[in-house]
User: Fold this.
Amino acid sequence: MLLGIDIGGTTIGLGVVEDKKIVRINHVPSFPKDATLEETLDYLEARIKDIITPEVTSIGIGVPTLVDVKRGIVYEAMNIPSWKEVHLKDMLEKRFGIPVNVNNDANCFALGAAARAHGTQEVLVGVTLGTGTGIGIIHNGALMCGDNCGAGEICSAPYNGSNYESFCSKQFFHNRNWSPRKASEQAAAGNPEAVALMEEFGMHLGELLSLVMYAYDPGCIVLGGGVANTYPHFKESMFNTLRNRYPYAHVLDKLRVEVMPEEDVALLGASLL
Assistant:
């Protein structure tokens, strides 16, 4: 058995995995903003002890930042102020006595998505649409991290006076005093403002996905995160923009786009690290 952990700014998910299936799962509040490093590690240790069993042989952890994958060092974790440089692998291995692997949370999502995706492809790209936007790349079944775990960090590239993340995550909706759920519900009800908002979101995401196509040439793109639940309302504008920005129509005709908004996909991927 394996233990996968997905550390977010508001929630930490923990899942016990057997044969690539999650057999037990817990979701708990994330660390308080004013917690010290030691307090966060004590809290994480306690939550692991709540779910771990003697049959678990390794722990995989996804965090929303860059990671020294070989040494398991976390740098400048988003929404965890005390995590500036955390030797998480060493600290948890000392506490639990089993191997610990650490990686970026979007990379974990991509690993989990690849395990569940339909069909076969040489390159799969996972795109998380949540509080922020993250990208993970799977090449021939293996995670492509880059030398500094930053291979998928194109969401931070400049775009429209800010960056892609500002327009392809919950931030886009919050900056317009909407939530993704409300916008989706109102669009389904025919509210013109909500319909236009969802179409605009799809346009921005299409711009990002055109960059994904140029950079990674995937055969499959998997969308995850909470905003992916609204896919039916931005799908058309996303594809229209993608076809306008990426000139190789025969490639897009073969491209598969799948949607996996379930919270446990990243947990599964973390366990597979």
